[in-house]
Hints:
Number of domains: 2
Order of helices and strands: HEHEEEEEEEEEE
Number of strands: 11
Strand order of the largest sheet: 1-2-3-4-7-8-9-11
Amino acid sequence: MRKLSVSRVTLAALLALVAAAPAQAQMAGNGFLFHRPYVRLGLRGGYAFARAGSDLFDFTTEQLTLNKKDFSGLSVGGSVSFAVAERLDLMLDAGYSRAAKGSEFRDLYDNNELPIEQRTTFERVPFTVNLKYYLTSPGQSIGTAAWIPAKITPWVGAGGGLMRYRFVQDGDFVDFANSNVFSQTFQTDDYATVFQGLAGVDYSLTTQLALTTEARMLYGKGRLDTDFGGFDKLDLSGVSASVGVSFRF
Length: 249
């Protein structure tokens, strides 16, 4: 009878564990992780505002029917972050922004009194390494087996790296020495060192998924090729705002 009683207790315990396993898995999917996240993957989309502060931008907007806002455009990006401390991540990041706009000379026309037209393209592709610091705890550990994410977590960051940039003007232009109109493509394409500051907020949607809003301020200047000889370095600086998602693992 004692053996039977022990067997019944053991069977009941096993059944309880089996029944609890799906519930525990469900909780892990919706309520907590079994460890603090080690890796975060992020995707974002937004708008990159170019400061356009160097003399090439000034000359372009004076001569052509362009405004400095025409050098701003949509942006996309992605990142992977590795936890180095409870509130500190090391983040590897890449982005892309592009602005392209058609234009014509403001006060000059060709021999047929037609507009002298061209197209200007400005692309920026930064690759940066950043430190990302959470201003409040991103989550709470429950013992050693569970981690619950915070609903809202603000953060700041800073870093630097390289930017691939490209500035192209293609179309018809005027030789101011003799007033002749000619077709030409002027282009500069190079890498430059950049630095940036970041700030944002993570809003947890599920245990592993968060909505992220962020703003960035980037600073850098790039060398111009001989096509744009006589101008100062190209201003690569600007600010950007974006919305995206991040996945915790």
